[in-house]
Design brief:
CATH architecture of the largest domain in chain A: 3-Layer(aba) Sandwich
Strand content of chain A: 15-25%
Number of domains of chain A: 3
Helix content of chain A: 40-55%
Shape of chain A: elongated
Order of helices and strands of chain A: HHHHEHEHEHEEHEHEHEHEEHEE
CATH superfamily of the largest domain in chain A: Response regulator
Radius of gyration of chain A: 26 Å
Mean pLDDT of chain A: 96
Low-confidence stretches of chain A: none
Largest sheet of chain A: 6 strands, parallel
Strand order of the largest sheet of chain A: 2-1-3-4-5-11
Oligomer: homodimer
CATH class of the largest domain in chain A: Alpha Beta
Number of strands of chain A: 12
CATH topology of the largest domain in chain A: Rossmann fold
Structural class of chain A: alpha/beta
Chain lengths: 335, 335
DNA sequence: TTGAAAGCGCTAACAA
DNA sequence: TTGTTAGCGCTTTCAA
C-alpha cells in the first residue's frame, strides 16, 4: 500500500501539499490539486487513519461492550449504535463479556490501549470499584441497560422495578397466585431491580414470595430450562412464570413443551423483551417491550456529545417499557 | 494519559528500557524491571497499541461486514468470530451493509484506511468488479455465506442449492403442490442458488414453477408479510411456502396469523435457518439448520491463517445444512 | 501557494 | 544491560 510520500514524489510536490489535498484545504493551485487527485486514483492510495489519528491524538473508534450479542435485546442496541456511529464516520468494536467480570476487565484494558474515543458498556457488576481505572482514564463512558453505582457517568436505563412490577401485577390480576421468577444475575442492576419489582408486586397484593420459585441465573436458555424442569416436578409447582429476557423465555418454553403442558391452561408465562416471534409462540406471549433500538441510539448520542464536550454534566436517561398482553397470560380458570 | 517517555523519566531510564519491560524482553535488570513495573502501575500507564502497530506496520483489528446483525444467522456468526479474534488478542469492527452496495463500498474503503488486518465479508453482490480494489490492496479477505464470482479468495459457504432442493422436495413428498418461495435478493449468491434449488426440485418432481409465487426480496419481515398478504387473497393461493431466512419466516407467520389461517392445515411453511423459537411457533416450523457458529469460526480461522501466511492457496469450505422436520410441514390432507 | 521539519508514541537496530 | 536514534505515515506550524 502506497503512502503519502510516494504520492508526493510522483506528483513532484511535498507531502504537505498532498495532505492539503486530502483534507480539502483551500490553498492549493487547482491544477496541482487535480494532478495529485489523479495520482491518488491511479495508485489506489488511501491515507492511513491510524497515522492521522496518532498525529492528532484522536480516534474514530468507539466500543460496545455487552454480555452477548446473541441476546436480541443487545442485538437491536448494537444495530442502533452502529447506525449512529456510521453517521459520524466512526467504527465500532464489538465486545462480548459473557457476564464475566474478568473478561470485561481485560477487554476494557485493551480498549484503553487501543485509545478508543469512547465506550458504551453494559457492566457485569454494579460495584464501581472495578471501574475506577476507567474513570481515571477519563475516557468517555456511557453505561447502557445497567448502572454502576456511585459513579458519575451517563447512562441509559429502563425502569426495571416498574416493569417487573407491572408484569407480576398483571399475572396476579389474571388470577395467578403461585408465580415463579427466573431473572438474570443479581450482580447486575437489571437482575436486582427486576427481583425487587417482582417481590414488591407480590407483597402489595398480599402474596407471600416463595424463595424456591425466585431465582437469579446466568441469562441463557439452558439455565431456565433446567430450573423449570425441576419446578414442574414439584407438587406445588408455580401456576405462572416470569422471565428476565427472551432467552430465558425460550428455556421455559422448552421445559413446558417437554412436559407436554399447555400455556396458559396449565401454566402462564410472561417475560421481558419483545421479539418478532413472541406473538407466534404458544398463544402469543405477554411481554414487557423495551425500546431497545432507541436505548442504543440514545446511548450513542450521549457518548458522542460527551466526546465533543467532556465537561458536560452527566445524565441518566430512563426509558419505560410497555406491557404487551397476549394469550400466555389469559385469565386463570378457577377449578 | 501518560506515555512511555513519562514512565521512563520517572524511572530514570530510557524509553528503550521501558519498552523492553513492556514486551517482556529478557535483558533488563530485575530490580530495574520491578521499579518500572511499579511506576507503570502507579501511573495507570497503558501503552498505545496504535503507536506500536504503526511502528510495526501491523494491526490487531479485523472487520466483519454483514447485511444486518439483527438477522440471527449473522448474529451467531459474529459471536463465533469474536470468540476466535478474542483468543488472538484481536478486536473486531462490526459493519452492517443493509444489502446496500454503496454503503458496503464506503465501508470497505474506510476499513482500508483503518489498515485492518483482515476482513470477513458477506458480500451484497456476487459481481467481482466492485471488489477488485480490495484484492489489489492485498488485504486478507474471507467471504462468508456468499461468494464473489471470479475472485480467488477464501470462503465459507453452505450448500444452498442442495438445501433449497431438500426443503422443496420435503414439501412435495408431503403432498404439497403449489409451493411459493420467498427468497433473499437475487444479486447475492445465496438468493440465486436457493432459487435454483427450489426450481430444480419442482422440475425434478414434475411440478411447474409458477413465476407469481417465486419472489426475491430484501430479506426482512415486512417484505415477506406484504407478499404473502397478496398471495393469500389470490384464488389459487399456494398450499405451502418456503422462505430464505428466519426474518422472512416471521413475515409469513404474521400474514398467515392476520388471515386466521392454520399451519399446516391451511398452508404449510418451511424455511432457512434454525432459531431457538422455531420449535415453538405454530406446531413447530420445519427448517434447514445451517451451522452458523461453525461457519463463523471457520471463516475466522481461515482469515487468521491467511494473515499469517498471505501466500497460502485459497480454500472454499462448503458446509451442509440439515433438515429439521416439524409440524408445519405435516402431510397434506387430501380433500 | 508551497515546502521543510517537528512530532504524535512506540519499537528495534545499533552502539556503548 | 542500557541508551541513542531513526522511522512508522501522517498533520500542522512556520518560513519562504
Amino acid at each position: 500500500m502506497p503512502n503519502i510520500k510516494e504520492v508526493a514524489s510522483k506528483a513532484g510536490v511535498s507531502v504537505a501539499t498532498v495532505s492539503r489535498v486530502l483534507s480539502n484545504k483551500p490553498n492549493v493551485r487547482p491544477e496541482v490539486r487535480e494532478r495529485i487527485q489523479q495520482i491518488i486514483q491511479d495508485l489506489g492510495y488511501r491515507p492511513s487513519r491510524i497515522a492521522g489519528n496518532m498525529r492528532n491524538q484522536s480516534s474514530n473508534v468507539v466500543a460496545l461492550m455487552i454480555s452477548d450479542i446473541r441476546n436480541p435485546f443487545f442485538t437491536a442496541m448494537a444495530r442502533a449504535i452502529e447506525d449512529v456511529a456510521n453517521n459520524q464516520d466512526m467504527s465500532i468494536f464489538l465486545c462480548n463479556t459473557d457476564e464475566n467480570l474478568e473478561k470485561e476487565q481485560i477487554y476494557l484494558k485493551t480498549l484503553l490501549e487501543e485509545r478508543v474515543a469512547g465506550i458504551i458498556l453494559s457492566p457485569t457488576r454494579e460495584n464501581g470499584t472495578a471501574f475506577e481505572f476507567l474513570i481515571e482514564s477519563a475516557i468517555p463512558l456511557v453505561t447502557i441497560d445497567r448502572r454502576i453505582t456511585g459513579l458519575d457517568v451517563d447512562s441509559v436505563l429502563s425502569d426495571n422495578v416498574q416493569a417487573a412490577y407491572l408484569l407480576t401485577q398483571h399475572l396476579i390480576q389474571r388470577g395467578y397466585e403461585r408465580i415463579g421468577a427466573i431473572i438474570g444475575l443479581k450482580e447486575s442492576t437489571t437482575g436486582r431491580e427486576r427481583g425487587q419489582g417482582f417481590q414488591l408486586a407480590l407483597e402489595d397484593h398480599g402474596l407471600k414470595p416463595d424463595p424456591r420459585f425466585h431465582t437469579y441465573v446466568y441469562p441463557q436458555e439452558s439455565e431456565a430450562e433446567l430450573i423449570v424442569d425441576e419446578w414442574l416436578q414439584s407438587d406445588e409447582r408455580p401456576d405462572a412464570i416470569i422471565t428476565g429476557n427472551s432467552r430465558l423465555t425460550i428455556g421455559v418454553l422448552n421445559s413446558i413443551q417437554k412436559r407436554g403442558l399447555v400455556i396458559p391452561q396449565d401454566i402462564a408465562l410472561a417475560g421481558f423483551d419483545e421479539t418478532p416471534w413472541m406473538r407466534h409462540a404458544a398463544s402469543g406471549i405477554t411481554v414487557i417491550s423495551q425500546p431497545t433500538y432507541e436505548m442504543g441510539k440514545t446511548a450513542a448520542d450521549l457518548l458522542f456529545k460527551r466526546i465533543v464536550d467532556p465537561q458536560r454534566p452527566s445524565r441518566e436517561v430512563i426509558l419505560k417499557g410497555t406491557l404487551i398482553e397476549r394469550g400466555s397470560t389469559a385469565a386463570k380458570l378457577k377449578r
